[in-house]
Design brief:
- There is one protein chain.
- The chain is an alpha/beta fold.
- It has two domains: about 120 residues, 3-Layer(aba) Sandwich (Rossmann fold); about 100 residues, Arc Repressor Mutant, subunit A (Orthogonal Bundle), CATH 1.10.10.10.
- It is built from eight helices and twelve strands.
- The protein starts with 5 loop residues before the first strand and ends with a strand.
Amino acid sequence: MEKNNTILVIDDDKNILAILQMYLRKEGYDVVTGERGDTALKIFEQTQPMLVLLDVMLPGLDGWSVLGQLRQTSNVPVIMLTGRGDTTDRIQGLDLGADDYIPKPFDAKELIARIKAVLRRSMAPESEKTVQYPGLIVSLDNYSVILDGKQIEMPPKEIELLFFLASREGKVFTREQLLEHVWGFDFFGDSRTVDVHVKRIREKIGDREAWQIKTVWGVGYKFEAAK
């Protein structure tokens, strides 16, 4: 199987696996499936897929735990599938590094569209993947944040949000715009996940006279650097 054409689907519902296999293969993707969380990482290592569809409620190990372990070694796009559709679950998935989140039951055509959108974003070339300010280096080449010469531990979405703002210094973005650009989809009108991520980034890197993430009240956020 081609590494760049394989989608891994982990779900304990055999009917869902069969439906997804049919639709994904129609779209030209190779499909590998698994039904347990405790074997998902092994299957991932064996197949090296281009994208993972991951159910939350799994036997052996839940989807959150699988995602957390996966994000320790890989930035492969992950779309979470779940029968639980409340906002807290969505925020948890995104905080752990999910690229999208679709509650069940879902429309297969919508899911295919989401998959294509996530893959387009993940494969889009970027002319510049590193941004630097005094004492701060943010890189998407190796997903690292260096503060005063020391690497700061951050999950992928925090790094992507920091990079997005820092690479567009001085420009104000609404929470909805940040959701669209960084997460790549309309997060059901809920903007709290942006506030949570900004709060965590500030806790880790603080503010400097030379630069800061600034709240623009009534609008959103911007990265501001001293002139």
